[in-house]
Design goal:
The complex is a heterotrimer of chains A (290), B (251) and C (333).
Chain A lengths: L10 H35 L5 H5 L15 H33 L3 H15 L2 H15 L5 H25 L3 H9 L4 H30 L2 H6 L17 H9 L4 H35 L3
Helix pairs in contact in A: 1-11, 3-6, 3-8, 3-10, 4-6, 5-6, 6-8, 7-8, 8-11, 10-11
Chain B lengths: L2 E12 L2 E12 L3 E5 L6 H8 L9 E9 L2 E2 L7 H7 E4 L10 H11 L6 H14 L3 H4 L12 H13 L5 E5 L7 H14 L4 E5 L3 H7 L2 E6 L2 E7 H6 L4 H7 L4
Parallel strand pairs in B: 3-8, 3-9, 6-7, 7-8
Antiparallel strand pairs in B: 1-2, 1-4, 4-5, 9-10
Helix pairs in contact in B: 3-4, 3-6, 4-6, 6-7
Chain C lengths: L1 H19 L2 H45 L2 H6 L3 E2 L4 E2 L2 H32 L2 H15 L3 H27 L16 H24 L4 H9 L4 H30 L2 H6 L17 H8 L9 H36 L1
Antiparallel strand pairs in C: 1-2
Helix pairs in contact in C: 1-2, 2-12, 4-7, 4-9, 5-7, 6-7, 7-9, 8-9, 9-12, 11-12
Classes of the chains: A mainly alpha (290), B alpha/beta (251), C mainly alpha (333).
The site of adenosine-5'-diphosphate has 12 residues of chain B, from β2 and α1.
Chain lengths: 290, 251, 333
């Protein structure tokens, strides 16, 4: 009989096979390009990576190829990112909570989410320029504090939306149970939501840290650059992305090499933070009611 | 009995969980076969093996054979789309495509390039809308979106869309469960009208509907076929205790 | 909508009981409304932030907007701050070219890859793809820049430019006028890869808003999967795809460091994708805070930031409204 067989390769079957093929090729191209980034950064960064790089600050003549490291930039970035994340937390947690407990899917809730998403899309160079005008208005110099404030602005929408997305998936039942027991909404927010928010908050913190460590254009004007490890909020500070950027701009091959190594360090930190957030939120999810 | 579908040693797994256990049945040609059983017993799963919809969900595994007119639809050289053309499906909830009423009916015919020109398509659309008992209601607004129809009308539209690709088998997974009584009755009478030309397999959750429609009954329990026999035998003299209990409404 | 309705009902209940019964309950209700107001204040922050950034840039760039007609700034060809000439046209065109090349290179493979992930891939590949995309989205721009310098610029210089010179040299937009590798194509390639994780994630989300019932309805009459995608899925998601592209474009528009490192930074009107260019963000990053003694220079750079911001705001708002609407439909159904 054979009436169910492929009688011949009809056009639509050829089309199906062809589309599937070019889709796979596309996926491989995209994955390959992104894999290549990691590969190149590792291959070019690894040879120049040394213990001194991560434990010393630049010595005299460092930018002409003499000894030293980029501890100033590593620590600077950690200070900047953790300060920015902490500051952003203070604002993003209440916003995310309010979005969940009071606004739900209301109109104002949509506007707030819209504005957060729009903020997310504003490029960091614009934040940087904005931060610089603020600093001029306040008579401030480039400093750790200024960098932290601007990074907090950049991280705020990212962290809030990340929390919001996690909390949104929280079952409504739990909340109703709490309300039925006679809690006010505020108490619900505090008790139930906080516990449920833990994975959201961790994800948000790590996302914020990752973004804060990697951002260059915003700290360029606001945090400045220095070879010393910052000791005060009011002093300028170095940062890893700028360390990469400046060293690559050097004519000395040794310095460029160390630029690649700095890029590798930056990549490793960001990937560790990113993987850590996955691992942590997966773990925390086990302890919350789904 | 002239068997249209033969199921041989069929086992289905969702991951590790076995949903169908060694199913062996024969479904008679040009009759209405009704699959009954408590919810979760695998009725939908069995139905999905007939048009190879099972493979649309991840992690399913199937062993055994399903023969349509003696040919295994899980055979190596078989074209899935050809199987689905031959075995039409009426889903639990009506699912009109996001296009006009006309285009819904013409969709499958276009997919298979079944007609030569616009006029042939037009005539065919009319023909199948008439068969589905919808022509009178919609012929003045064929180009309105299909979603503007009532739920009952949508289900008949889906019937027309399915019939338009000239299947020989119609599957229905509780096709009236989302409908009001009048629309349900309408669909039921369509199915009864059509059974001369099509082999029909219906899953139903109501015993009354089963009694109204069935020529042949398959009773399932926990993934196994407990009883498969002509309707009058099952309803008057069930062979198995479970079936008896079900018919007496003990479930 | 339904969710907030559900939540609101019990709240009024607690309020009334609170008012009637004990003083403790009264204070709790007060605490609740106080918290409500404070929290509400916090939600004003993002909205205000957008306004404040825009207004601050507008105020600070006012001197130059006042001194020159807007058309002179936007369409002026000459950039010589020391002579008081502030023509943005080379920079605006540089931004435009780099963005367009980046988006054009990125969208086709991203669209195909996201269709594959959403419609064909098995659960396992999907569950790998999502975290990998997140990971890649987290790679800092400067790392993309390093990659651009080490891989893309030489690739453009040694492979693409000679090829293009050989086969497409007569077409002016493919002409190789400045054979260095640095330029629009290199920047476009870097951007294309940079925005890929974002575009794929958004497109993937968009595809998942289409109910499976529709796919099944099409498959049930014997359509192939591609026919189903082509005829049913793609028309449904078209606005979302467009929004994802616009969102990707707005990311590309504002990208600074990675582009700066590979684009060449020569203020000229580009005529070919192999030309160097000087996009607006690079202009700001390279010069801001340095030559502040030149009159109006600082206002000019901030007005460049303002132009960038306004375009990006428009792009973002449009695309996000479309995306949110599509997502909401999914939640509703
Ligand atoms: N996609 C699926 N993944 C995992 N298990 C499933 C899936 N679909 C159905 N099942 C399980 O298979 C069994 C049979 O389901 P089903 O065929 O839908 O039953 P019925 O239609 O008779 O109610 C049930 O236990 C159900 O939980
Ligand atoms: Mg079922």
């Amino acid at each position: 009989m054979g009436f169910l067989m492929k009688k011949h390769w009809q056009r639509r079957h050829l089309m199906e096979a062809f589309m599937k093929f070019i889709m796979r090729v596309s996926l491989v191209i995209v994955a390959g390009a992104l894999g290549l980034i990691l590969w190149i950064v590792i291959v070019r960064g690894l040879p120049a990576l040394s213990w001194a790089m991560v434990t010393k600050i630049p010595e005299g003549g460092y930018y002409m190829g003499k000894g030293g490291g980029i501890l100033n930039a590593i620590l600077g970035s950690l200070y900047l990112a953790s300060g920015g994340t902490l500051l952003a937390m203070i604002f993003s947690v209440p916003i995310a909570m309010y979005l969940k407990t009071y606004l739900g899917d209301s109109k104002w809730g949509h506007y707030v989410r819209l504005s957060l998403d729009v903020l997310w899309g504003i490029p960091s160079i614009v934040y940087g320029a904005f931060g610089f005008t603020l600093m001029i208005a306040l008579g401030m110099r480039a400093s750790l504090l200024a960098g932290i404030v601007i990074l907090a602005l950049i991280e705020l929408p990212i962290m809030t939306r990340a929390m919001d997305e996690v909390i949104r998936r929280m079952p409504v039942d739990l909340e109703h149970a709490a309300l039925a027991l006679g809690s006010t909404k505020f108490e619900v927010a505090l008790r139930v939501v906080t516990r449920q928010m833990l994975p959201g908050i961790t994800t948000a913190i790590l996302l914020g840290l990752g973004r804060g460590i990697g951002d260059a254009a915003s700290v360029l004007f606001t945090a400045g650059y220095t070879d010393r490890i910052p000791t005060s909020l009011m002093r300028p500070t170095a940062s890893l992305p700028l360390a990469v950027f400046f060293q690559l701009g050097s004519p000395y091959p040794e310095v460029q090499q160390r630029g690649y190594a700095a890029a590798l360090i930056l990549t490793i930190i960001v990937l560790v933070v990113s993987l850590g957030s996955r691992w942590l939120s997966a773990r925390l999810n086990k302890y919350t009611i789904k | 009995m002239d068997a249209h579908i033969q199921v041989k040693n069929l086992n289905v797994y969702y991951g590790k969980q076995q949903a169908l256990k060694d199913v062996n049945i024969e479904i008679p040609k040009n009759q209405i076969t009704v699959i009954m059983g408590p919810s979760g017993c695998g009725k939908t799963t069995l139905l999905k093996t007939f048009n190879r919809f099972l493979e649309l969900s991840d992690g399913t595994q199937l062993t055994g054979e399903v023969l349509v007119d003696g040919q295994n639809i899980y055979g190596r050289e078989v074209d899935v789309t050809e199987v689905r053309k031959v075995v039409g499906l009426l889903a639990q909830r009506p699912s009109p495509l996001p296009m006009s009423i006309y285009d819904n009916v013409a969709y499958g015919m276009h997919i298979h390039k079944m007609k030569k020109d616009r006029k042939e398509y037009k005539d065919a659309v009319r023909h199948y809308l008439e068969i589905a008992g919808l022509w009178e209601e919609v012929h003045k607004r064929l180009h309105d979106p299909a979603t503007s129809l009532s739920i009952g009308q949508q289900q008949r539209l889906c019937l027309a869309r399915g019939l338009a690709v000239e299947p020989v088998i119609i599957l229905g997974d509780e096709p009236t469960s989302a409908l009001d009584p009048i629309s349900s009755q309408n669909i039921e009478s369509r199915l009864l009208d059509l059974k001369q030309q099509y082999t029909t397999v219906i899953v139903t959750h109501t015993l009354r509907q089963a009694k109204r429609l069935a020529d042949y009954v398959i009773y399932m329990y926990l993934g196994e076929v407990i009883e498969a026999a002509p309707a009058h035998e099952v309803f008057t003299n069930p062979q198995h205790e479970r079936t008896k209990q079900y018919l007496e409404g003990l479930f | 909508m339904s969710q907030s309705d559900k939540i609101n009902t019990p709240q009024t209940v607690t309020k009334t009981t609170g008012r009637v019964i004990r003083p403790v309950a009264v204070s709790r209700a007060r605490q609740n409304s106080f918290a409500r107001r404070t929290f509400f204040g916090f939600t004003l922050l993002p909205v205000f932030l957008i306004l404040i950034v825009t207004i601050a840039l507008l105020v600070r760039s006012w001197p130059i907007l006042n001194a020159y007609p807007l058309s002179d700034l936007l369409f002026g060809d000459v950039w010589k701050p020391t002579d008081g000439q502030f023509g943005f046209r080379p920079f605006i065109l540089g931004t435009f070219w780099v963005t367009v090349v980046g988006v054009v290179l990125s969208v086709p493979p991203c669209l195909l890859a996201s269709i594959y992930l959403a419609e064909y891939a098995h659960a396992r590949l999907r569950s790998i793809a999502k975290p990998v995309l997140d990971l890649l989205a987290a790679i800092p721009p400067v790392v993309y820049g390093v990659w651009g310098l080490l891989a893309i610029v030489p690739f453009v210089d040694k492979v693409l430019a000679p090829l293009s010179d050989r086969w497409l040299g007569s077409v002016s937009i493919f002409a190789v006028n400045q054979p260095t590798g640095f330029g629009i194509l290199a920047a476009g390639l870097v951007l294309a890869v940079m925005i890929a994780p974002l575009i794929i994630s958004v497109m993937y989300e968009i595809f998942s808003t289409v109910p499976n019932d529709l796919r099944h309805a099409s498959l049930a009459v014997g359509a192939t999967q591609w026919q189903t995608i082509r005829n049913i899925v793609l028309p449904q998601v078209a606005p979302g795809i467009l929004a994802a592209i616009v969102l990707g474009a707005s990311r590309a528009l504002g990208e600074t460091i990675a582009v700066l490192m590979v684009v060449g930074n020569i203020p000229q009107i580009p005529t070919s994708i192999f030309d160097s260019a000087y996009p607006l963000p690079a202009l700001i990053a390279n010069n801001y805070g340095e030559m502040m003694s030149i009159p109006l220079y600082d206002a000019a750079l901030l007005s460049a930031a303002l132009v960038l911001l306004v375009v990006i705001l428009i792009f973002n708002i449009l695309s996000i409204i479309i995306l949110q609407r599509m997502m909401r439909q999914k939640w509703a159904s």
